[in-house]
Design brief:
Helix content: under 10%
Radius of gyration: 24 Å
Oligomer: single chain
InterPro entries: 6-blade_b-propeller_TolB-like (IPR011042), NHL2_NHL_rpt_dom (IPR045302), NHL_repeat (IPR001258), Thioredoxin-like_fold (IPR012336), Thioredoxin-like_sf (IPR036249), Thioredoxin_domain (IPR013766)
Number of strands: 45
Organism: Micromonospora vulcania
Keywords: Repeat
Protein name: NHL domain-containing thioredoxin family protein
Pfam family, one: Thioredoxin_8
Length: about 600
């Protein structure tokens, strides 16, 4: 890169993982600094955390990763919630708290996640959005090491990371729970990379499945390993007998499904290659062990198969334990809220599933759109929720009610559904008969799942409190619910001014050092554009293969959000057995239609915008 852009100073509300020290760029001079602009709700940001771990280990004496937390949701602005998330997701580098998105704007970020590389002399040398950059980053870091060692400007040695004290609790950020046939509960102890069986009281420990170390090893209960497991699904007895295991686990960060034999606790891998999915959408059945998955977050038995909330690519998938096949069930990978036939609908990080008592309806917690969706008769619908950027704590008629990043749902026998309204710290209830939303309980610490017992009691997985909590008797009665008219929020990012009429959308993409665009299997790039409201775009919506597109904006619409998805396939250049790479990002770009604005809208996928 020839551009010489001085990196803006790092400023925020405070720092985590530094032992109380405030860092300045001057403190990092001589190091390669990677600023990771993230928000802890965002699955793509969580993918990047995992992609960066090998780089941090390999280049630990020259590379300093700085997580700049620039929040989307109101709850994410809370300093305690951020500290919890840093522990929950195993963030082992300094984190700057940027609650008002000041650093986000200083570094011209437009998407979560965005990565900015700063050289040892303090200049920004590369910017990239989205995930899938690990290989390119490694090549860039190697180049920077060679350049700055030769110049004498590279300083090797330990970085500024200071680990916090290790906590002591029975569970640590539990994610999901399931009721076992004997009345005990099995809980995914996500931050400790294992499963814990507890008694009917939700407290008494019975056994642990998994060693507690991050990994992906099969084997006996004490030796098997997971990586931040989440959803759990009991198989019907006749299916379990044929499959050879009783329960399926969404092993989220490993991008796997694991089977567990409850009698022995033995763990086997039943679906997923372990590679993260980066391909094109198809409706084929795939060999379950060979297929790539992407952050499976929850599971449910529906339509005679295991349905997977594939949070990482905004879809639902299916898994057949008997045929040992898997495939796409709903969604297109576009991150947005749109109802319709399953293969045309849009979702946004589905993270919770529950099946109605009659088996007809699959409820879905669509977390990034703060929505409750449902599958029925081959169609995806929305019960509560308004889109990616509208959220809050508002009860009443479903069309005006608001949630905030719900992660769990629990269908009740009367046809209603309980909602783990995670970032509102509440349990909500939607009743389709009355079309009303009410608040059943609040004051909870990031509830992430709900379990209904045969006796009609409800247990809440109170994730950030590291426990299971029993709702008070009568909470589910009409008298036990309340109506909250709380705050209404909208994600506020500085809009980009665009003119009415023609605008050129350019996706800036430069292959990483040593890579080239790969057209072995067809066009190497793909661009999908839509708008909210749809009337904002007169021309330019749809899918194409060019990374530049002519848009025509409606002058009668004052503003909205341009939803852009871009991807680029690259391969290693001049190598006999070249490895292939796919870079992908979704943008929701707030725009304001004004006279005299620039007629070019650049978005950086990788490179520096000229």
């Amino acid at each position: 890169m020839s551009a010489r852009v001085r990196a803006p100073e790092l400023r925020g509300r405070g720092w985590l993982n530094t032992g109380g020290r405030d860092l300045k760029l001057a403190d990092l001079r001589g190091k390669i600094v990677l600023a990771d602009f993230w928000t802890f709700c965002c699955i793509n940001c969580l993918h990047v955390l995992d992609e960066l771990r090998p780089l941090e280990e390999k280049y630990g004496d020259v590379l300093v990763v700085i997580g700049v937390h620039s929040p989307k949701f109101e709850h994410e602005k809370d300093a305690d919630a951020l500290a919890a998330a840093v522990e929950r997701y195993g963030v082992h580098h300094p984190v700057l708290d940027d609650p008002e998105l000041d650093m986000w704007q200083q570094y011209a970020a437009r998407a979560w996640p965005t990565l900015s590389v700063i050289d040892p002399e303090g200049y920004v040398v590369a910017t990239m959005a989205g995930e899938g950059h690990a290989e390119g980053l490694a090549r860039l870091i190697d180049e920077l090491i060679a350049t700055h060692e030769a110049k004498g400007t590279l300083h090797r040695g330990s970085g500024p990371y200071v680990p916090p004290p290790a906590p002591e609790t029975a569970l640590r950020f539990p994610g999901k729970a399931v009721l076992l046939p004997d009345g005990n509960l099995l809980v995914s102890d996500s931050a400790r990379h294992s499963l814990v069986e507890v008694g009917p009281d939700g407290e008494t420990p019975i056994r642990r499945i998994g060693s507690g170390d991050r990994g992906r090893a099969d084997g006996p209960a004490g030796a098997a390993t997971f990586s931040e497991p989440q959803g759990l699904c009991l198989l019907p007895t006749h299916v379990a007998e044929v499959a050879g295991y009783d329960l399926v686990v969404a092993d989220t960060v490993n991008h796997l499904l694991r089977g567990v034999r409850l009698e022995t606790g033995e763990v086997v891998t039943v679906a997923g290659s372990g590679r993260q999915w980066r391909a094109e959408v198809d409706d084929h059945a795939h060999d379950a062990i060979a297929v790539d998955l992407s952050s499976p977050w929850d599971l449910a038995w529906y339509d005679d198969k295991v349905i997977i909330a594939m949070a990482g690519i905004h879809q639902l998938w299916w898994f057949d334990p008997i045929k040992r096949t898997a495939g796409m069930y709903a969604g297109t990978t576009v991150e947005a809220l749109r109802d319709g036939p399953l293969d045309e609908a849009w979702m946004a990080q589905p993270s919770g599933l529950s099946v109605s008592a009659d088996g007809a309806r699959l409820w879905v917690a669509d977390s990034e759109s703060s929505a409750i969706r449902y599958v029925e008769n081959g169609v995806l619908g929305t019960a509560v929720g308004q889109g990616l950027f509208d959220f809050g704590h508002v009860d009443g008629p479903a069309e005006s009610a608001l949630l905030q990043h719900p992660l769990g749902v629990c269908a009740l026998p009367d046809g209603s559904v309980l909602i783990a309204d995670t970032y509102n710290g509440a349990v909500r209830r939607f009743d389709p008969a009355s079309n009303q939303v009410s608040t059943v309980a609040d004051g909870l610490a990031e509830p992430s799942d709900l379990v209904l017992t045969p006796a009609g009691e409800v247990l809440v997985v109170e994730s950030a409190a590291h426990r299971l909590t029993r709702l008070a008797p009568g909470a589910l009665s009409a008298a036990g619910a309340s109506t909250v008219d709380g705050p209404r929020h909208r994600t506020e990012r500085k809009p980009t001014d665009v003119p009415a009429g023609e605008v050129t959308l350019d996706i800036v993409f430069t292959p990483a050092p040593g890579q080239k665009l790969d057209e072995t299997y067809g066009p190497s790039t793909r661009l999908v554009v839509s708008a909210s409201p749809p009337e904002l775009l007169v021309e330019g919506a749809g899918t194409g293969t060019e990374l530049s597109r002519r848009l025509v904006l409606n002058g009668d619409v004052t503003g909205g959000v341009l939803q852009v998805t871009a991807q680029a396939a690259t391969c290693d250049a001049d190598v006999e057995h070249a490895a292939c790479h796919l870079t992908r990002q979704d943008w929701g770009v707030p725009v304001r239609v004004v006279d005299g604005a620039a007629t070019r809208l650049p978005l950086v996928l990788r490179g520096l915008d000229a």
